[in-house]
Each structure stands twice: as C-alpha cells, then as structure tokens.
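Input chain follows. Return structure tokens only.
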Amino acid sequence: MWSLRLVLPLLPLLPLLPLLPLLLPLLPLLPLLPLLPLLPLLPLLLLLLPLPQQLRPLPLLLLPRLLRVTLEKEIDDLNGIHLVK
C-alpha cells in the first residue's frame, strides 16, 4: 500500500504527467545529469573540433555575445585582419 509520506512530495509533479511520454526517451541520458553544469562550455569544446568549413561559425554563435566578440577579434588578429573603427 502507498504511504502518504511517499505520495505527498510527488503531488507538485502531477501537472507534468502528460509530458511523461515525451520524457521517457530521455531516460537513458539521466547518468549525464551531473555534467549539466558544463553545458555552457560546449561551444568552446566545439571550437576545438575539426568541423567542416560551413559549420565552423556555429560554435561561435552559441557563445555569449561578449565572449564571441572577443574570440572573433582574437581570431582576426591571428589571421592578420585588423579592423579600424
């Protein structure tokens, strides 16, 4: 028999019940949950991968604007491109 101590904490999750079929395919990803705080580093890790030419700007677009502009400037400096403002 279900104990109230077990059921009561789950009541706030009741509105999410219709989403259960959508969430079930994500169940195998549960072991990756501790890596979630590293998600903001994903664009930087993508920059290190050898991507095809047409996909190379993609990781930069995922970065926050300030970091993206700084990295773009650094890349331009490395390529010998100097913009005069």
